[in-house]
Design goal:
single chain; alpha/beta; Rossmann fold; eight-stranded mixed beta sheet; 10 helices; globular; binds adenosine-5'-triphosphate; binds magnesium ion
Length: about 325
């Protein structure tokens, strides 16, 4: 949709390759919660990959594991995260510090509301520069703060203002500026537009597209909003209950989805060409991650489930170029 060729069609090696990544949360005296299981995807330079799915499906867990910033109870139990020819999971914490923020950075879910209210925005961006780059000279830091604010469309003169003097959209722009402090190649944006009204949301999406265009930035865009995905993503990974439901280019996801969960999600999303149609919701709830059903995790809510779906988990089938679906219906 945005002219970037999706995953396996791409000739150059992907910037980031995630293979069979699984993450458990382990709390004392409780069964492990399998929050992410067997997830694989590729991210190319300049590509925007949407990571979508209902609340609790493991989007943030996946994002935090790429940064190796999971909370203590979160453990990566298997998989590979290949970046720059190395498996990040094999790096020591010290080695990881040369990747985190510098090569891969993240805009945390809800972080724009967690800015320190009593420190000017410019100071907070300056702090990120001081902590994560080799720049320590005050004037140089100030100059870089100005550059970063300019990059995200905020007048450098506003660096001395406090978060309450910024609108929501500006606070999110400031968070994006912070994520760009070390000129990373990949930015993970966890629900960056969720709390914003539609006009401001559109401006933030436009900013991300501009940064992709100007800096060649690759973006992992985490959202539960399929409308936003349609606007900016090149490819989409649909997760359900910690696993991959479907992974494909954005056109395929919207025009030829094969997983019943993707199809149901799309029905729950307004179509401007059919304004009088009632929006569907998906009855039921996602599975408990510490008591997963033996078969497909979506089977209890799936309108097309049959015996096999309740008996064994479906593998991930590869259909044509770059289209992967975890559903027995495509097994022919
Ligand atoms: N620190 C934690 N300890 C135990 N379980 C956790 C922890 N953090 C998340 N989980 C569980 O892992 C699952 C995935 O959570 P995660 O936050 O990754 O979902 P999400 O897709 O980002 O959801 P949302 O759309 O609400 O942000 C959920 O069931 C959640 O309850
Ligand atoms: Mg989340």
């Amino acid at each position: 949709m945005n002219g970037i060729v999706n995953d396996v069609q791409h000739k150059a090696a992907p910037l980031l390759t995630v293979r069979h990544l699984s993450v458990d949360y382990i709390s004392k005296g409780e069964r492990p919660a399998h929050a992410v299981e067997g997830v694989s995807f590729e991210l190319n330079k300049g590509e925007i990959l949407g990571l979508v799915g209902e609340s609790g499906c493991g989007k943030t867990t996946l994002a935090l594991s790429l940064m190796r910033l999971l909370p203590a109870s979160g453990q990566i139990v298997s998989g590979e995260i290949i970046f720059g020819g190395r498996d990040l999971l094999g790096l020591s914490e010290r080695e990881m510090r040369s990747v985190r923020w510098k090569e891969i950075s993240m805009i945390f879910q809800g972080a724009m509301n967690a800015l320190n209210p009593v420190r000017p925005i410019g100071d907070q961006i300056g702090e990120a520069i001081r902590l994560h780059t080799s720049i320590s000279d005050r004037n140089q830091i100030n100059r870089r703060v100005g550059e970063l604010l300019d990059l995200v469309g905020i007048a450098a003169a506003r660096k001395d203002q406090f978060p309450h003097q910024y609108s929501g959209g500006m606070r999110q722009r400031a968070m994006i500026a912070m994520a760009l402090a070390c000129s990373p190649q990949v930015v993970i944006a966890d629900e960056p537009t969720t709390a914003l009204d539609v006009m401001i949301q559109a401006q933030i999406l436009e900013l991300l597209l501009q940064l992709r265009r100007d800096l060649g930035l690759a973006i992992l865009f985490v959202t539960h909003d399929l409308g936003v995905v349609a606007e900016i993503c090149d490819s989409v990974l649909v997760m359900y209950g910690g696993v991959t439901a479907e992974y494909a280019g954005v056109d395929t996801i919207y025009n030829a989805p094969r997983h019943p969960y993707t199809q149901e999600l799309l029905k729950a999303f307004p179509d401007l060409t059919r304004p009088h149609e009632r929006l569907a919701s998906i009855p039921g709830y996602p599975p408990r991650l510490d008591a997963l059903p033996p078969g497909c995790r979506f089977a209890p809510r799936c309108p097309t489930a049959f015996d096999r779906c309740y008996a064994e988990p479906p593998p991930i089938y590869a259909l044509g170029t770059g289209h992967r679906v975890s559903c027995f219906l495509v097994d022919d």
